[in-house]
């Protein structure tokens, strides 16, 4: 986000103001936080996804260490894509917040 805004010639003061305001939009806290809310939400999604992927790997009986080579990498990518597919009902809901 930062690089894209700098390239589009957004004034630095506006970027600082946006960052400051985003620190006040985190829904889990009634006070301001030290990191902008989108960064917190990205962390929560990644943390939750890790548990979903561990469950998928455990259910399949395979681990990613058994696959090797290009074909194995393609299978891992396809399996990862299937594992992180989001149900249409939850796409617009911040269930992780």
UniProtKB/TrEMBL annotation:
Sample GO molecular function, one term: nucleic acid binding
Entry-linked PROSITE patterns: PIWI (PS50822)
Pfam family, one: Piwi
Top-level division of the source organism's lineage: Eukaryota
Name of the protein this chain belongs to: Piwi domain containing protein
């Amino acid at each position: 986000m930062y690089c894209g805004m700098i390239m589009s010639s957004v004034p630095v003061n506006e970027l600082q103001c946006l960052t400051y305001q985003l620190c006040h939009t985190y829904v889990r806290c009634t006070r301001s936080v030290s990191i902008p809310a989108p960064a917190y939400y990205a962390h929560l999604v990644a943390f939750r996804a890790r548990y979903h992927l561990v469950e998928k790997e455990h259910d399949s009986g395979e681990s990613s260490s058994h696959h090797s080579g290009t074909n194995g990498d393609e299978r891992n990518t396809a399996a990862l894509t299937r594992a992180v597919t989001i149900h249409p009902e939850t796409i617009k809901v911040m269930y992780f917040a």
